[in-house]
Automatic annotation (TrEMBL):
<feature type="transmembrane region" description="Helical">
    <location>
        <begin position="87"/>
        <end position="107"/>
    </location>
</feature>
<feature type="transmembrane region" description="Helical">
    <location>
        <begin position="32"/>
        <end position="52"/>
    </location>
</feature>
<keyword id="KW-0732">Signal</keyword>
<keyword id="KW-0812">Transmembrane</keyword>
<keyword id="KW-1133">Transmembrane helix</keyword>
<feature type="transmembrane region" description="Helical">
    <location>
        <begin position="64"/>
        <end position="81"/>
    </location>
</feature>
<feature type="transmembrane region" description="Helical">
    <location>
        <begin position="127"/>
        <end position="147"/>
    </location>
</feature>
<feature type="signal peptide">
    <location>
        <begin position="1"/>
        <end position="22"/>
    </location>
</feature>
<keyword id="KW-0472">Membrane</keyword>
<protein>
    <recommendedName>
        <fullName>Integral membrane protein</fullName>
    </recommendedName>
</protein>
Length: 168
């Protein structure tokens, strides 16, 4: 569980940061644009890190990941200051901080095993059930949070049941 969930949580944070940053197209001042562009960069970096970590079967660059996760509340505060969805930012910050904490915990455990002479090597691919459970947790939190962003509010929600009598 500890080996894949940080990456899954980083995926959730990345998607939410990208969605929050997408509001840059809806106007605002230069400071707003700077914060929202930074959110897009942070979101893309989280998605790249998550993909690399899932591919490796363990969190990559743990020191960098823990440091970036520690900055999540700062990004969250800046995003709230420019009017981003509080629900989306809270979920993204929660995902990022949790991913960082889980990465730090796993990093510490590997270091303790190595210092005690234990094998640091483990199975490269975790149990599929744990990965699915983590993905369900991320989906359950991220989906409603995404719906509160500008991107989510602008999404087309027609599922084929149009009531328009003219067929538009």
């Amino acid at each position: 569980m500890l080996r894949t969930w940080p990456a899954l949580f980083a995926f959730g944070a990345g998607l939410l940061h990208l969605a929050a940053g997408a509001a840059v197209v809806h106007g605002g001042g230069a400071s707003t644009a700077a914060v929202l562009c930074a959110l897009i960069v942070v979101g893309a970096a989280e998605l790249i890190w998550a993909g690399a970590s899932l591919h490796a079967g363990r969190p990559r660059r743990p020191r960098l990941a823990v440091g970036a996760a520690a900055a999540a509340p700062v990004w969250g505060a800046a995003a709230l200051a420019v009017g981003c969805s509080p629900i989306a930012i809270a979920a993204a910050s929660g995902f990022a901080v949790t991913a960082g904490a889980m990465t730090a915990r796993g990093w510490g455990e590997r270091a303790r095993r190595a210092a005690s002479g234990g094998s640091a090597a483990r199975r490269a691919h975790p149990a599929v059930a744990w990965t699915i459970a983590g993905a369900l947790v991320v989906a359950a939190v991220a989906t409603p949070a995404l719906a509160t962003t500008t991107a989510g509010l602008s999404a087309v929600h027609d599922h084929g049941g149009s009531t328009d009598p003219h067929g538009h």
